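Final report, Chapter 2: Outcomes

The project's central promise was a pipeline that accepts a single protein chain and returns its three-dimensional structure in a standardized token representation, suitable for archiving and comparison. That pipeline is now operational. To close this chapter, we reproduce one record exactly as it appears in the project archive, with the input sequence first and the structure output second.
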Amino acid sequence: MERDLSEKHPPEKQLSNVSDSSDNKENATSIATNLSANHHDQPETETCDQLVSPSLKAGVKGEESDNTSHEIEEVDREEKENDEKIEDIPPPEIHYTLENVSQDIDQFITTLSATPKDAKETTVEESKDEKISMEIPVFVEKFLDLVEEKVAKHELTEGKGKWGQNPEEDSSFLEAVNRISKLTSSLDKLRSDPNRAALISRNGGIQQRAMACLEDEFRFTLEDIKHNDQDPNTDAKGKQHEADRCVVPESESAVTDNFLGYSDDAVSKLNRIAKEMIEGGFESECCQVYMMIRGQAFDDCFVEIGFEKISIDEVQKMQWEALEREIPLWIKAVKEYASIYFVKELKLAEAIFSNYSSISSSLFSNLTRSVLIQLLNFAEAVAMTKRSAEKLFKFLDMYETLRDSLPAMGALFSEEYENELKAESTTARCRIGEAAICMFCDLENSIKSDTGKTPVPGGAVHPLTRYTMNYVKYAGEYIATLEQVFREHSKIERADSTSRPRYESESQNFNNDSDEENQSPFSNQLMRVMDLLDSNLEAKSKVYKDIALSCIFMMNNGRYIVQKIKGSTELRQMMGDPWCRKKSSELRNYHKNYQRETWSKLLGCLGHEGLQVNGKVIKPVLKERFKSFNMLFDEIHKTQSSWVVSDEQLQSELRVSITAVVIPAYRSFMGRFSQYLTPGRQTEKYIKYQADDLETYIDELFDGNPASGARKRP
């Protein structure tokens, strides 16, 4: 087989051999024809020959035979001389280039690859003729010389500018590397032939050097990312950052490139290089470079976002104030990676390794795995920190991020890795959810532990009420998430809530006609918190010695609670209309009790009973009534001006209700009995207030400003 290929070179010699052989055949034919013609051209001598003796005939035939042999020897001598002359002529020198030798190399590779390996191995052990068939054509060595020269040229050029200057040259280099790889694979079948060891070794060495060039270019191209100059990223000092490997966009729409900063030409070049490296048996080196560069790109994204790599131990040691600042950065990182970078990283991997889906999938999975493990480890570490109620809402933010972001990534991964990701993210989300439930349930403990006996000045809203209701109102913004958390993770609710059975039964009484949805685990837990708060406030109201002030305290706190619940559509819907009606009824009762305790005595001074005997007004009793009224009103004004009703609507309602009761009664009393007092000194002494004065002083009540007492207006 190799003999046939080698005989084709040089072609001039093959043509000469064919020509010489043809001439020799013509000469031999001519001699034979001449001899035959000489023999048949003498018919007249046949009769004479018969008369010649046999011995004479034999002599004649011998002479003819000698002449024929002599002629044949002459022809052979001429042929031999011609062959020697042809061998002495040197064949014309052939100029080899990659272009003209590539076709021969392709044909050689095809022929060599088509022959079974076993056949080549047995050929070496056979006869000399068979060994000659295994000879390698001269153009193979010439091809290696040319490729080695091209590789050496690439090795001399370092850094940027090695590729892209001449696209045709780049394509020629890749084609040469492709043939070297195929030749390596084909020559491997001759490895058992010791005579081919040098050739195989040289070919492998050239391939190694060529692949090293491709690997360097692959690395450089991956590192050379171009960014959108229209959206520069600046630091706090206003200086533009250097070209990072990863720029965090404000939203997905802000990312205009398809491949995370790589141009289409760069991706095309990376694709061709990756193809040649993989087909040449350098898949491992190609994948290692890709993993290293893209892994560093992900690390740069973390830095750009501001989220630091923090170990589980470091998270455990961090103060909550510092950890609280890290959580929003973590949330941003998860959302950016899930919605933007992972999607585009998959597109990049699939574009570069377009012919190798299993490789692109594996690279993408391995790259994202390290990022996701880091993000999930942070979440689990946060879940293991000391729990407190104020951490709840950051935990809920993390829970929502894990719930909403990670499942969307499932379509990016293979089924096996998707299941693994789902299991790991579910574990982290469950731990966050369980911690959130414990934190909200700890609100019960916060309420029960507040057993202070110190009354709030002026009957104002208690700090416990403010804290609890602000907490609950803020929770209302996460009500859907809290319902999901309690529904999916309520099995870990604390069993030490001794008040639960009582409050559960009360809650059910308030919501008998509520929808089934309002009976969710979170709804029941919220109801328990509200009932426990009411009980705590009622106990605190008993600290006030003045019953009227106690009623003001309960009105203030009750009104604050109702307003917070009604201010949130979600909370109001969850608590239900029966609960709201019950709280409003309680507020009306406290209002009535306040009026009875405060103003009933004052109105008693304006009663008609005991002022007349036999139809005549008893002046001393009348004077005492005015005196008592003035004294009581002064005391009420002085005391209740320092009381606090911060809710303007409740404050207005109280003042209006007081005015509606006191002013008409006072006007009536004045109109009927003031005439019995002597005008002048007695009138000024006993009639201290006019009706308009009383209205003015009533409007000064519940301002929280202590007064020295009401005085008559000039």
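Archive annotation: The CA atoms of residues 253 and 340 lie 9 Å apart.
This record, like all others produced under the grant, will remain available to the consortium after the project formally closes.
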